[in-house]
Design a protein that fits this description.
about 425 residues, alpha/beta, Lyase, Ornithine Decarboxylase, Chain A, domain 1, TIM Barrel, 9-stranded mixed sheet, 8-stranded parallel beta barrel, elongated, binds pyridoxal-5'-phosphate
Length: about 425
């Protein structure tokens, strides 16, 4: 167990988090290399060893040290922008290890990716297909494409992270996909390799995935009867984690990974299968470490004000997300209150109406499961510099994997 209380003080491995705060200040993110390795090992065993291609969805956390670690386990990269492409190339991911997803890609981004000869473009609209076909033709290339299908399946997750319903902007209508694949010669510079689906994120109930696999099995069988030959199916990401217990193992929080792989192989095993997980690989690998600025009350409503905020962890404000709260010094809960940051927004709260222990000015506190969609969604709102990221290694050593942004760097942009 990487994050744990030792002598009633919160540690990562054997490192007291107070040591990290003293060395790098707060707020900061503390990552456990042990957990990252464990998560990558599980994904490798469940999927890569069964013949799947796994591309990590870089948007979940794009720290280069984390990307390099995943690369060493054989994971490729699922990118959604020209910037993510540049980072993957910079880190030495080869062209066949990069897939490009996303509902809107600029002509400049499409050109960059064509020139990089990436493995797949996951195309989400007719207009994108037309633009890609024209660009590929002008560059004398063929573009390898998976068409992203919108299956109208409810992923049973928060509406802001549902992507597989007709009312979501993502993917293409199944009838449109059929008509494109039946007449592929209308797009002479596109090589149609297959289909892609990503129905949503933080999916805890495996039923929507079962429905997706059944849907794709029926849909591809129908296409085959019409003479359409496909080679690849990408089932996307979306595997959910338990945000209520930060200390749980990935196989406890997401117990259905293995059965998902088996089911997909059983029903779609004739295709090269792909997945693009993000959250499940990184969410439980980090804490947001912050310091208490003070306690206050408006009437009988209690607030703990800390130096961490929505600029470091936007998920509670964006999705009403729950992140477990741990004081650095373990003590029983004694009151109920909101834990809020200094940012000038009423939505700048990290926990609402939470049972909490007595914490005082200067105490350290942590929000768990801050490895996914935390640092990658961070902003500099209120001119708050991006905060440091620290990795505690498997050997117990501490490594700074992103330093704190300086005010000079922020001002230099102007
Ligand atoms: C196309 C695509 N693939 C993969 C992912 C990763 O999802 P998750 O982090 O839930 O695994 C996302 C997340 O939004 C996505 O949009």
């Amino acid at each position: 167990m990487a994050f744990q209380y030792l002598n009633d003080r919160l540690h990562c491995e054997s490192v007291d988090l107070k040591t990290v705060a003293e060395a790098y200040g707060t707020p900061n993110y503390v990552y456990s290399e042990t957990i990252l390795q464990r998560n990558a090992t599980v994904l490798k065993t469940c999927f890569i060893d069964r013949g799947f291609k796994v591309s990590y969805a870089m948007k979940a956390n794009s720290n280069p040290e984390i990307l390099k670690l995943f690369h060493s386990f054989g994971l490729g990269m699922d990118i959604v922008s020209g910037g993510e492409l540049k980072l993957a190339q910079h880190l030495g991911f080869t062209s066949d290890e990069i897939n490009y997803a996303g509902v809107g890609k600029t002509l400049e981004e499409l050109t960059l990716a064509l020139e990089a000869q990436i493995a797949h473009f996951n195309v989400e609209s007719e207009f994108e297909l037309e633009q890609l076909n024209a660009l590929a033709g002008s560059l004398g290339r063929q573009a390898p494409v998976l068409l992203r299908l919108n299956p109208d399946i409810d992923p049973q997750t928060h509406p802001h992270i549902s992507t597989g319903l007709k009312t979501n902007k993502f993917g293409m209508d199944p009838d449109l996909i059929s008509s494109i694949l039946i007449n592929p010669l209308e797009y002479p510079h596109i090589d149609f390799h297959g289909l892609h689906c990503h129905i949503g994120s933080q999916i805890l109930n495996p039923q929507p995935f079962d429905d997706l696999i059944d849907y794709l099995a029926a849909f591809t069988a129908g296409l085959e009867q019409k003479g359409v030959e496909l080679s690849d199916i990408d089932l996307g990401g979306g595997f959910g984690v338990n945000y209520h217990d930060a200390f749980e193992d990935i196989l406890t929080t997401t117990p259905y990974l293995e059965s998902f792989a088996e089911q997909a192989l059983g029903k779609l095993g004739q295709y090269q299968l792909h997945i693009q997980p993000g959250r499940v690989l990184v969410a439980n690998s980090a804490l947001l470490l912050a310091q208490v600025l003070g306690n206050k009350a408006n009437g009988d409503h209690k607030f703990v004000v800390i130096d961490g905020s929505t600029t470091e962890l936007i998920r509670p404000a964006l999705y009403d997300a729950y992140h477990a709260f741990y004081p650095h010094e373990k003590q029983p809960n004694s009151s109920t209150g909101d834990i809020v940051g200094p940012v000038c927004e009423s939505s700048d709260g990290l926990a609402k109406g939470r049972e909490i222990s007595e914490v005082q000015t200067g105490d350290l506190v942590a929000f768990a499961s801050a490895g996914a969609y935390a640092s990658s969604m961070a902003s500099t709102y209120n001119m708050r510099p991006l905060c440091p990221e620290i990795m505690v290694g498997v050997d117990g050593g501490i490594k700074l994997i992103r330093r704190r942004q300086t005010f000079e760097e922020m001002i230099a942009l102007y």
